Amino acid sequence: MGLEMSITLRINPIMCDGHGMCAELLPEIITLDQWGYPLLAAGPVPRPLTGLARRAAQACPTLALLIEETRPKHR
Amino acid sequence: MSTELVRRGPAAPPPAIPPYRPPQARLPRLLAGLSYYRSVGLREHEHRYGPIPWRGHSGRERPERLIDVVDRSGLTGRGGAGFPTGRKMRAVASGRGPAVVVANGAEGEPASGKDRLLLTRLPHLVMDGISLAADAVGAQEAYLCVHQRETELLASLADAADARYRAGIDPGPIKIVGIPGRYVSSEQSAIVAFLGGGPAKPTFAPPRPHERGVRGRPTLENNVETLAHLALIARYGDGWFRSIGLPSATGSALVTVGGGVARPGVYEIELGTSIGQVIMLAGGPTERPQALLVGGYFGGWLTAEEAWEIPMSQPTLRAAGAAMGAGMVLALPVTSCGLAETARVVRYLAEETAGQCGPCVMGLPALADALADLAFHGGRGRATGQIQRLLPVIEGRGACRHPDGATQLVRSALRTFSAEAQWHDQHGACYGVARDPLLPVPGDEEREWGWR
Description:
The complex is a heterodimer of chains A (about 80) and B (about 450). Chain A has helices at about 20-25, 50-60; strands at about 5-10, 30, 40, 65-70. Chain A has about 80 residues and is α+β, with helices and mostly antiparallel strands. The radius of gyration of chain A is 13 Å and the shape is globular. The mean pLDDT of chain A is about 90. Chain B has three domains: about 5-245, Rossmann fold; about 245-335, Ubiquitin-like (UB roll); about 340-435, de novo design (two linked rop proteins), CATH 1.20.1440. Helix content of chain B is about 40%, strand content about 15%. Chain B has helices at about 5, 40-50, 60-75, 85-95, 115-120, 125-135, 150-165, 190-195, 225-235, 240, 275-280, 305-310, 315-320, 340-350, 360-375, 385-395, 400-415, 420-425, and strands spanning about 100-105, 140-145, 175-180, 220-225, 245, 250, 250-260, 265-270, 290-295, 300-305, 330-335. Chain B has a five-stranded mixed beta sheet. In chain B, a hairpin with a 2-residue loop joins strand 5 and strand 6 (about 250). In chain B, helix 5 (about 115-120) packs across helix 6 (about 125-135), helix 14 runs antiparallel to helix 17 (about 400-415) and helix 15 runs antiparallel to helix 16. Chain B is globular, with a radius of gyration of 22 Å. Residues about 1-20 and about 55-60 of chain B have low confidence and may be disordered. Classes of the chains: A alpha+beta (about 80), B alpha/beta (about 450). The interface of A and B includes residues 11, 15, 18 and 36 of A.
């Protein structure tokens, strides 16, 4: 239970050049705007997609797609 | 653990220093010692305010407590964001390694004049604040930034800093730095980048300046007005500061009133003063105002009727859809066109993008085009819809708040001038577009285009 970790995607807009690789690899979460820059769906990445999200982040040519890991707080 | 000290109230003044008596319980405070035609020198400054307090007690415990006093005073940043100053100082003081203090006097807002007024007339009040803040957070370096084209101001500030250093007031001379006069260059991460040797462009957060700022050091960055308030709080205490203003927004603030008013200029107001009173302070409207732009180019438009009774403070203005920003109030007469004014400002903001983030680089010019269509050429029934579709694609997608500021301005314009927008979209430009521009936008000759 306590080991569950959720990830959230974030974009560094300065690094992003709009290659569109992320939207190609992860269309479930990422779409492109009219200029080709990524738009992210709100909220954390659904569990079944976390592996694909990590792969999309690795594939970004400018390393602009960032993974933020959020651990659930211990009480 | 420090509550004991807090309960006891302000400490008795050290023997060598005469007691500081507040010159004014109410107003003016910052502007009490203002001279219209010259800068107040060090000797005159010390004669008026007494020597700088909290000093000569090199024990660490006293400067630490200045942060507590600032905390209790409720002072918030006067540069635009309105963040609690005490909390910011505490974050920097608890950071790793020696800290850096940066005073931001590079007023990016073309319509604002308060920082310039303070720096040209009361430089030592600001520098007292810099010195006290540096002491409190354990900083060994302090910078004061103004626009690099203001060569006269740079020289006079360098003289003032030198005089203080020679008089033994500051442990090291405050470094006066000229930064590029671009709109986004006075954003705090841009100044940090510039002081670190880079271009004066905003950077991606995290890290934030208070964690890792100038050359990786924890950096306290404050607007010069905030630091001037700090200099007075250190002398007269937090109770004095809180004795005017609202519980949620304490003390006084400088505002720049402009547009269609009889006496445009910088005024000091008690926070919570209604916008209508602020307009009357500046001599009242010269023509019946239809709307007010409150908070500058990152603020928002309000109709004159709804704005008149709203108290000037960050929370009340946010709730109304405007912002306190750096304290600007601009009155728009009924004969002007609010859409044309907004279109010119948005064009300027689009040109002032740092060119880093796609949605800002592509989105702001598109927004400026659509708005210019609506204002000057008539939208043929399509422009408002186009603007409404662009706004969500631009918002929240930059590294800094530049695109968000522009969209907030446009949203407030469409709300405040909704009837006009509809009319423009269907029938074309109104007669108001022929009027001279009211909102100041720097001309091409005065603009700077570089980033160093």
